[in-house]
Amino acid sequence: MTKRIAVVGAGAVGKAITYQFLTEGYNCTLFDPQGGASHSASRVAGGMQGSYSEITEDNQDSKQIKFCLDSHKVFRSWLKQIENDSGIEVYLHQGSIVFANSIGGIGDKEAINVMIKKIQEQGDTYENLMPSDIPFMKPSSHCEVEKAIYIPSEAGFDAETLHESLFGAIKAYPKANVVADSVTDITPVTKGECWAVTTTNGETHEFDSVIISAGAQAEKLLGESLYSELALPPMYGGKGVALLMENTLDINTVIRTPNRHGACGTHAVPRKNGLYVGATNRPSLDPTNNGGATAGEINFLFDGIINQINNQFANSALLGTLAAYRPFTADGKPFIGQTNQPGLFLATGTGRTGILMAPLIAQIIVDEVMGKTPRQENVFTPIDRKGSYETIKTATFEQLYTVAKAAVIDVAGAYGSLPLDSSNTIAAYIAQMLHELVISYANGNKVDGKIMYIFDNFPTEVAVPLLYSTVVSKQLQKL
């Protein structure tokens, strides 16, 4: 009997999984409400193949780094197969320039040193650069470049053309079934023997195995009851905003700072139709794609490209803005593979590295669904993950002072995710948090439900920006 397989979610990971099933000869249904034109985070991503340049001093998870490096090794051959099947070439530029400047300070330089150490461990190569070696670099005087390297094995590609090529490759297989409708409900049938997938038009489809690859919407899609049964850390969205600008300086490689403020720093990536400039990362418990870029977010990005890369971009045309929510988990690790519910699989929570990890995630999912010998160790299994990390509720004073202070600076500092009127936003944050504490004492320690949810479920570095976005809106208009 042929196994009925469905993939819910058509970002890069969902498409990659669907494509993997098809290339191995299996039938597969992909639920893609946009019919190939997905509004997923991966479609509006920068497309940096940054297996080294994503590493920082405080983010050296050896398992995650190894997974990204392993996926990096197969990425080009995977991409070539997709291009051959679809006939659509993915726009790509070789190499990454990573620079530290006076804005990033010691943190930037330490991050580059960590990158160099990992490159050397892998037997890979890099080049030290002087600012004069970078022809399109002309920052403002207060953003002087202090260190720079070139990583030839990395690359930048146009995420838009990757999605087009992946969808074209999927459509080339007769066993592909694309349902151009949104999924509203996923429920087990007859004690988990199969799964019912309901769409907005009221149709219900039954499958033996369902893979949820719906990005930041995955928890909401599964529903409170089913997600509770999975016993997983909660998810949240990271709002990523980027600009598409005229590439007036003909930048032909990725140029970026190390990761900053919980995001991927200031970066520019050549695209087929312009220059991608990114990116923000604002944590949110309500990752809906209804809101576009705000004026403050655009201001932050303009500051990066004009002041930190080249002043001449002040004269470049703005071609558009991009906004979507990256999927994150409270414990900081992706959910990949079989859950504790038979026939239900997850492939989400990849944050900024979903596209890079997609080839290996696809192999893991196919092997687990079909009961095959694993080709890749799954170090991100979504089983027994609840309570596997510390939350802000259990943080010591020293942890709060160091981690929380850094997080507040990230969200409200001059180069954080809220760059405008920082004094007022910080004042609003403090005032509202004090207000909540006063109310809690007056009402027998009853605190706002959403605030307690954050305290109970998220580590300090995530809880602080989530609390910030949750409470500051209540108070800001009063200041």
Word description of this protein:
Residues 4-367 form the FAD dependent oxidoreductase domain. One of its GO terms (cellular component) is cytoplasm. InterPro entries: FAD-dep_OxRdtase, FAD/NAD-bd_sf. Keywords: Oxidoreductase. This is Glycine/D-amino acid oxidase-like deaminating enzyme. The structure is a single chain. The protein has 479 residues and is α/β, with parallel strands linked by helices. Among the domains are: 91-157 and 236-326, D-Amino Acid Oxidase, Chain A, domain 2 (2-Layer Sandwich), CATH 3.30.9.10; 392-478, no CATH class. It has 12 helices and 18 strands. The protein has helices at 12-23, 62-86, 105-121, 159-171, 218-222, 224-230, 295-309, 354-370, 397-412, 422-442, 449-457, 460-475, and strands at 5-8, 28-31, 92-101, 127-129, 145-157, 176-179, 183-189, 194-199, 204-207, 209-212, 235-245, 254-256, 267-271, 274-278, 282-284, 318-329, 335-338, 344-348. The strands form 3 sheets. Strands 3, 4, 5, 11, 12, 13, 14, 15 and 16 form a 9-stranded mixed sheet that branches. Strands 6-2-1-10-18-17 form a 6-stranded mixed sheet, with helices on one face. Strands 7-8-9 form a 3-stranded antiparallel sheet, with no helix packed on it. Helix 2 (62-86) packs across helix 8 (354-370), helix 9 (397-412) packs across helix 12 and helix 11 packs antiparallel against helix 12 (460-475). The longest helix has 25 residues, at 62-86. It is globular and about 65 Å long. The model is unreliable at 414-419 and 475-479 (pLDDT under 50).
